[in-house]
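ok trying this again, last paste got cut off
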Amino acid sequence: MISLSEFVKQRRKQVNLTQEEFAQRAGVALTVVRKIEQGKTNLNMAKVNEVLQLFGHKLAPVISSESDENG
């Protein structure tokens, strides 16, 4: 499975955008794109989704139940 940071970096490069250009198109600060591509873990999900929206994707919480896994 590809990481979020690699996914964003690869897709950004596919569309030939710098981090700055990409941030402008996504409507987020340059630091948001840099943090995502660096694999930082303390990211704002709303900002991440603004970036992913350019590619038709979004993040959502995954709810798992231990009873389902052990059941």
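PB: full thing came through this time. The chain has one domain: 4-58.
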